[in-house]
Fold this sequence. Notes:
Blueprint: H1 5-15, H2 19-22, H3 49-52, H4 59-73, H5 90-96, E1 105-107, E2 110-112, E3 118-123, H6 127-136, E4 141-146, H7 158-171, E5 175-180, H8 187-201, E6 206-209, E7 220-223, E8 227-231, H9 237-241, E9 246-251, H10 253-269
Parallel strand pairs: 4-5, 5-6
Antiparallel strand pairs: 1-2, 3-9, 4-7, 7-8, 8-9
Helix pairs in contact: 6-7
Amino acid sequence: xxxxxxxxxxxxxxxxxxxxxxxxxxxxxxxxxxGQAAAGQININxxxxxxxxxxxxxxxxxxxxxxRHRELHGPFGRGEDLLAVENLGPKxxxxxxxHLALPALSSRQGQAVFGGSQVMLLTDxxxxxxxxxxxKDAHQRIDMAMYLFKTTKSAQNRPALLVEExxxxxxxxxxxxxxxxxxxxxxxLNRENQSLAKQLQQENITVRFDALAKTTHTKMVxxxxxxxxxxxxxxxxxxxxxxxxxxxxxxxxxxxGELLAYLATIExxxxx
Length: 272
């Protein structure tokens, strides 16, 4: 006996109960803006099996399951809807997110699109899995300004995992540029940022420090001159795993261009 749509949706929600702990799926309140696919991305509500099969961790069988579920129950509207697809769990959904039309911002009061931008709210630990997936999917360049970038040797240290992915990006030809704070009074911050810079420079990644006379408290990442992460998250394990932090992910090429221009002013002030 076939299960009802409500039963399948409930099963999907049960499968997704652990995603806050695994940090591999966005909160259900973030509504996928899938009606309009961005250039170079796949619209999951219209794509054929052959297109869907090219997504990470999907393959032909899961692609067919996505199409079958769509035909039976209608278009996907929210992130949790994808969990109702047979054999499609939180890890798979998180992996394919960068390849789909970017989710629009959905607050608990509803969704919004600002100034032509599609925007995603990333609170607390939701930031890290989204950022690392976008770094993995970067094709051309990654530009970054960060107040503190502190790694440890722990296998689960999140900043160290970011370093690993930045290194892989550089090796596959992505241009990676990072500007870090150099403090006139905080020796701890200087040691951590300088250690990180030395590690990345050994991988031929461009790392520069700001002017000593001015504090750069900015935390931003711009990927492929299109996707911009801005907010309060430093690259420390506490900020990425435990703290109350708030950032936004914006899909807007014009805004990304303005942020890159702003980053250039910080570099201009930096000593040569």
